[in-house]
Design goal:
Largest sheet: 6 strands, parallel
CATH class of the largest domain: Alpha Beta
EC number: 2.7.1.167, 2.7.7.70
Subunit structure: Homodimer.
Radius of gyration: 27 Å
Number of domains: 2
CATH superfamily of the largest domain: Ribokinase
Function: Catalyzes the ADP transfer from ATP to D-glycero-beta-D-manno-heptose 1-phosphate, yielding ADP-D-glycero-beta-D-manno-heptose.
Catalytic activity: D-glycero-beta-D-manno-heptose 7-phosphate + ATP = D-glycero-beta-D-manno-heptose 1,7-bisphosphate + ADP + H(+); D-glycero-beta-D-manno-heptose 1-phosphate + ATP + H(+) = ADP-D-glycero-beta-D-manno-heptose + diphosphate
Structural class: alpha/beta
Number of helices: 16
CATH topology of the largest domain: UDP-N-acetylmuramoyl-L-alanine:D-glutamate ligase
Oligomer: single chain
Family: In the N-terminal section; belongs to the carbohydrate kinase PfkB family.
Strand content: 25-35%
Length: 480
């Protein structure tokens, strides 16, 4: 997966969502008896929560990832519609909402007992929006099209995305080379003709293509049929625990899912659509975008209810699966400040150490393993090349800072590496505010830089006879 964090630090994607907005309402309670009136559970409600649903959940996912989001939709002039507006405003979303007389804004209420859904009841309009409302949305799109990188269509079959509006939106977006991604509904995907990609699940793809997906051959045929029927740039089918299948340049690629305990799949499709649009807007290719979407979905299905995934959560999840790239462990000072705050909020014990680590040897690895044993997360401050020269002389370092950071980041015991340019790591330690500060035992009786910031300082013995200086001397002796 490409380094999304780095790309986001350089550019904030601008994404437009068009689709069916709704409110997902949750009534949380416990159940320990059956009603005397009928053979049903009695749920004692403890709390109520509300989140944006449908296209709103796509929006919430995009906001969580760090995108600049706009939305166009149709709602009713009712309490639910006013709540939708307020919730969008609180998220900082730029919204263009058409109020249509007589229309009921969708509200889905779920009764939850002991984290299990007991029942759901809906209040909504399902009929198509009026031609006047559709025209208002398209007029606004024409006015704002150049403001967006990508357009996401979230179709919950509640009437906003009519065939006529879909045709106009996709055609107009293509004129401006804007990719259109669609979470589809129904059995006729030709209404999405010209979109860059659709995100149907296996069941939806089978219904729309008329092909029962049973093996690799039938999967290819379904992908090809969907691509042809809707003139797609890329054909894609989500396969639940088996991952996501892509037909890209006539090649079928299956990106496997990432294993995690599943608590609730509500909204997972919204997360896939949002994360695909987010990654593509940053310039990632389709395969890296799908890998990113897989990870994001892996995060949200471990949560109850419609949920979102932040970049930090996705990166942490990827690291927990031992699938993160080495580069993801190398952080800037600004990035480590945010990470350190998140770790503190999670109650993690943070360990900090620092050094030049010019030629990595057994003594270094032993020292770092001991340092990691003192806490949950080990952050290593690495002297820059300029800093090493000032400390060790003009002939050092042997290995440049990028190579040293890369090698150190590959060690299992190290969670993050941050390069610093000062002679001491004091300013970096102020940013991290570690629980444990670790230095070598040669600092016994000496002042340890940063000990006034860390909660505790620990000294670690070195392995006898193992040092960078001795390694260099041995190499030079062998050459002579």
């Amino acid at each position: 997966m490409q380094n999304i964090q780095k790309l986001v630090s350089e550019y904030q994607p601008r994404i437009l969502v068009i689709g069916d907005l709704m409110i997902d309402e949750y009534l949380w309670g416990t159940c320990d008896r059956i009603s005397p009136e009928a053979p049903v559970q009695v749920v004692d409600i403890k709390k109520e929560t509300k989140v944006l649903g449908g296209a709103g959940n796509v929006i919430s996912n995009l906001v969580a990832l760090g995108s600049e989001v706009s939305v166009m939709s149709v709602i009713g002039n009712d309490e639910a519609g006013h709540e939708v507006k307020s919730m969008l405003d609180k998220q900082g979303v730029k919204s263009f909402l058409v109020e249509q007389s007589g229309r009921k804004t969708s509200r889905k209420t779920r009764l939850m007992a002991s984290h299990s859904q007991v029942v759901r009841y809906d209040k909504e309009s399902k009929n198509s929006i009026s031609s006047t409302s559709a025209k208002a949305i398209f007029d606004k799109l024409q006015e704002k099209i150049t403001s967006y990188d990508t357009i996401l269509l979230s179709d919950y079959n509640k009437g906003v995305l009519t065939r006529e509006l879909l045709e106009k939106v996709i055609s107009y977006a293509n004129k401006y080379n804007k990719k259109v991604l669609v979470d589809p509904k129904g059995n006729d995907f030709s209404k999405y003709k010209g979109a860059y990609l659709l995100t149907p699940n296996k069941k939806e793809a089978q219904i729309a293509s008329g092909i029962q997906i049973e093996n690799d051959d039938s999967l290819r045929k379904a992908l090809e049929k969907l691509k042809a029927d809707a003139s797609l740039g890329v054909s894609l089918i989500t396969l639940s625990e088996n991952g996501i299948a892509i037909l890209d340049n006539d090649e079928v690629i299956i990106k496997p899912t990432v294993a995690r305990e599943v608590y609730d799949v509500t909204g997972a499709g919204d997360t896939v659509l949002a994360s695909l649009g987010f990654a593509l807007s940053l310039g990632c290719d389709i395969q890296n975008s799908v890998e990113f979407a897989n990870l994001a979905a892996g995060v949200v299905v471990s949560k109850i209810g419609s949920a979102t995934a932040t970049l930090d959560e996705i990166e942490e999840y990827q690291a927990s699966l031992h699938k993160s790239s080495i580069e993801l462990h190398i952080k800037s000072r600004e990035e480590i400040e945010k990470i350190s705050l998140r770790l503190k909020n999670q109650g993690k014990k943070v360990v900090f150490t620092n050094g030049c680590f010019d030629i990595l040897h057994r003594g270094h690895v032993s020292y770092l393993n001991v340092a990691k044993s003192f806490g949950d997360v080990l952050i290593l401050g690495l002297n820059s090349d300029a800093s090493v020269k000032r400390l060790k002389g003009e002939d050092r370092p042997i290995n440049n800072e990028e190579d040293r950071a890369y090698i150190l980041s590959a060690l299992e015991c190290i969670d993050y590496v941050v390069i610093f340019d000062e002679d001491t790591p004091y300013e970096l330690i102020k940013v991290v505010e570690p629980d444990i500060l670790v230095k070598g035992a040669d600092y016994e009786g000496k002042e340890v830089v940063g000990s006034d910031i860390a909660k505790q300082t620990k000294l670690v013995e070195f392995v006898d006879g193992k040092s960078t200086t001795k390694t260099i001397e041995k190499i030079q002796g062998a050459k002579s």
